[in-house]
Design a protein that fits this description.
Blueprint: E1 2-19, E2 22-36, E3 39-45, H1 55-63, H2 71-77, H3 82-99, H4 103-106, E4 119-121, H5 126-135, E5 141-145, H6 151-162, E6 167-171, H7 178-190, E7 193-197, E8 217-219, E9 238-241, H8 243-246, H9 249-261, E10 265-268, H10 275-285, E11 290-291, E12 309-310, E13 313-314
Parallel strand pairs: 4-5, 5-6, 6-7, 7-8, 8-9, 9-10, 10-11
Antiparallel strand pairs: 1-2, 2-3, 12-13
Length: 323
């Protein structure tokens, strides 16, 4: 018997999470189960409205697949995105269980080890962001959400006061203009910020090739899969690989190799999901310049057998969870 199923689930967040596009109180995910001959593989994705995805549309894509589809056929059956990600990762998990070998071995990847991950500070007033930073000042790497406008300087100054020793990266979520980047970059560098994610809107980022970029720029919304790379030349210094964008571990592995070959630094990121979504990404994070797999740290509840986090970072999944 072969069967693919997809269900919507919600996991409560520990605190309200805010970015420039809005706030949320729970992580809404789609959980995929692939069962064949009594063996079960699992995967998770987070549909994202920014990419015209909904819970219903993603579930419809998944349940429309043939139950016996394999990873190779899946790459053509669905476009890069959340639906393909959950099924692809479930098929990898299934293959590992069938073979009695971990996914990293099946994929020819290095044996995974703990990786330091960023912890994301929600967008808020400078005073609240300073309090957030102080609460998490023990973490080695903080990612600060920004919203556009000159108040972003006050936000970063507040975060630096709250966490004087932490490394800092920032995420503008497409909220800046070229003029604002030029104004903010020297200030952020002075405050020790190492990189900014997606300062300009995807599709309206050509000016990044025309202006000086003293603060390194990472492509997030502008980079989905290998097909995105040609459009990034001269504009970005780093790419953010998220499995919900690549459409799964299969394409993420390929994008990682292609991006490095093209001279880009690599960041491995996530949507706000559970440990099941992070587990495959930990394999890609090995050797990445920046890892941002903090989704489970933002949750009030997680999966059974969750990923372990400590001072060494995020650990690879146990086989009870995935892979």
């Amino acid at each position: 018997m072969s069967r693919i199923s997809a269900v919507a689930e919600a996991f409560q967040l520990a605190e309200v999470f805010t970015i420039s596009r809005g706030s949320r109180t729970e992580a809404q995910v789609v959980t995929v189960t692939v069962e064949r001959e009594g063996v079960v593989g699992m995967g998770e994705c987070v549909p994202y409205a920014r990419y015209n995805e909904t819970m219903d549309s993603v579930i419809a894509q998944i349940t429309g697949l043939p139950d016996d589809i394999d990873r190779a056929a899946l790459q053509d059956a669905l476009p890069a995105g959340a639906a393909r990600n959950a099924v692809d990762c479930a098929l990898w998990d299934l293959a590992a269980k069938q073979a009695g070998r971990p996914v990293w071995q099946l994929a020819g990847l290095p044996e995974p080890a703990p990786v330091i991950t960023a912890f994301t500070l929600s967008l808020a007033s400078p005073e609240k962001m300073q309090a957030q930073a102080a609460k998490h000042a023990h973490r080695p790497l903080l990612k600060t959400k920004l919203g556009g406008g000159v108040e972003d300087v006050a936000r970063i100054e507040a975060v630096r006061k709250g966490a004087p020793d932490a490394r800092i990266i920032v995420d503008a979520n497409e909220g800046w203009t070229p003029e604002l980047y030029t104004e903010l970059a020297p200030v952020l560098l002075r405050l020790g910020v190492e990189m900014v994610e997606q300062p300009l809107p995807a599709g309206a980022d050509d000016m990044l090739a025309e202006i000086a970029r003293p603060l390194p720029v990472c492509a997030d919304e502008s980079c989905h899969d290998r097909g995105s790379l040609a459009g990034l030349a001269g504009k970005y210094d780093m790419v953010n690989i998220k499995l919900d964008k690549t459409g799964g571990l299969t394409e993420a592995i390929a994008l990682d190799k292609a991006a490095r070959a093209a001279g880009y630094a690599v960041m491995v990121g996530c949507m706000v999901g559970t440990s099941l979504a992070m587990a495959p990404a930990v394999l890609i994070a090995q050797g990445a310049q920046i890892t941002d797999l903090d989704g489970p740290l933002l949750l009030a509840q997680d999966r059974d057998h969750p990923l372990h986090y400590d001072a060494r970072g995020v650990y690879p999944a146990t086989t009870e969870l995935w892979g």
